[in-house]
Automatic annotation (TrEMBL):
Residue ranges crossing the lipid bilayer per the database entry: none
Enzyme class: transferase
Protein name: diguanylate cyclase
Keyword Transferase part of the UniProt annotation: yes
Reactions it catalyzes: 2 GTP = 3',3'-c-di-GMP + 2 diphosphate
């Protein structure tokens, strides 16, 4: 009667192993497969007859053998379970993902439990792998992280131009001011605005005015380096912070930008629309007590450009 109960119990256990929606793999100490359940059959395309007695690494050469064997052997030596999670390593087996909600995932993300198996003699002569399909969780987390990144980016940028907004740009300037105090590196600032912008809005409308602002921002970004900080300071006023740039270099940048804007011609309902900018250039000096002093100096140079007839660059002495 007891023997019959044991057989029935074994049958139930085997039936459960075949039916559960996780992968179950049992290997001997030479990494040869002895149990390969239906989950593994369905996702690998290999039947149990093909997998049994085969080397895990021969069937799946994509597995990092050195890393995996070290993980398994440590688990066996300590007699405790070990785990791998998808954040550290996306998967152990490169199975395709068939979940309908996971259009962003071509492969299945997996968590894996490594379980040493002891025989009746107390010797660990087999290892069980339990493979969990966590693709849905992984994709949802990735999408959430991507959305949060976009939200943070939007919070730092001006909605119309995509340039840094004033608040974040000033924090970048504050950081560069601190870096200058420590390393005495050169830092220059170009401040400029669009000439007679009110007339553009009055004569062509606010949509045309927005296009002028967007075009100015685009030209600024095209000429700036990746290490420069381009911002919309307010309305039609812009700023470009140039780290590790001399006053002469900043002046050259300002002139290239002025000429680029001057050559630009927009088409507004068949009418050509041209515009210019006035610029002020200043550099950070040791005499400045704070970063606002650099803004004030560049702003004064910009005012001189406007007073001098506009469409020109003035360098603060």
């Amino acid at each position: 009667m007891a023997a019959q109960f044991d057989i029935d119990e074994l049958h139930w256990l085997l039936d459960i192993v075949q039916s559960i929606d996780v992968g179950v793999v049992v290997m001997d100490r030479d990494y040869r497969i002895e149990v390969w359940n239906s989950f593994m059959e369905n996702h690998s395309g290999l039947g149990s007859a093909q997998a049994n007695e085969s080397s895990l690494f021969e069937l799946f050469p994509e597995i990092d053998q050195s890393w995996f064997t070290q993980k398994v052997e440590t688990s066996v030596m300590l007699g405790t379970r070990a785990f791998t999670i998808w954040e550290q390593r996306p998967n152990l087996f490169r199975f395709k993902s068939y979940q309908p909600i996971t259009g962003l995932a071509d492969e299945m993300y997996q968590n894996v439990t490594i379980l040493p198996l002891r025989s009746s003699t107390g010797k660990t002569d087999h290892v069980c792998l339990i493979i969990y399909d966590v693709t849905g969780v992984a994709v949802n987390k990735r999408q959430l992280e991507s959305a949060n990144t976009k939200l943070r980016e939007l919070a730092l940028r001006d909605g119309l131009t995509g340039l840094l907004n004033r608040r974040y740009w000033e924090s970048c300037l504050e950081h560069e001011f601190a870096r200058h105090q420590r390393y005495d590196n050169e830092v220059s600032l170009v401040m400029f605005d669009i000439d007679h912008f009110k007339k553009v809005n009055d004569n062509f409308g606010h949509q045309a005015g927005d296009e002028v602002i967007r075009t100015t921002a685009r030209l600024t970004e095209q000429l700036a380096r990746e290490t420069d900080f381009c911002g919309r300071y307010g309305g039609e006023e812009f700023v470009v912070l140039l780290p590790d740039t001399s006053l002469e270099g900043a002046q050259q940048f300002a002139e290239r930008l002025r000429q680029s804007v001057e050559r630009q011609q927009l088409d507004h309902q068949g009418t050509p629309l041209t515009f210019t900018i006035s610029l002020g250039v200043a550099r950070l000096t040791d005499a400045m007590e704070n970063y606002q002093a650099l803004i004030e100096r560049a702003d004064k140079a910009l005012y001189q450009s406007k007073e001098g007839g506009r469409n020109r660059t003035t360098v603060a002495e």
